[in-house]
Amino acid sequence: MAEYTYMVLRLPRGTTRDVARQVMTEHAEYGGWELHRLRLFPDGSRRIQLRKRIIRQRRTF
């Protein structure tokens, strides 16, 4: 089973789709994050959950 670490971003009301896309793209390209869940609230704010896979190295003898 894969293990992930999560990061939550909150974008305020009035943030355009283009700005939200740009923020997610920068996190994906430079941080290795991928989109897990995006929620658009009725007031216009967004909550974005990004995840990154945890890679654990195992010892070999």
TrEMBL record:
It comes from the Bacteria. InterPro entries: DUF5703. It comes from Actinomadura craniellae. This is DUF4177 domain-containing protein.
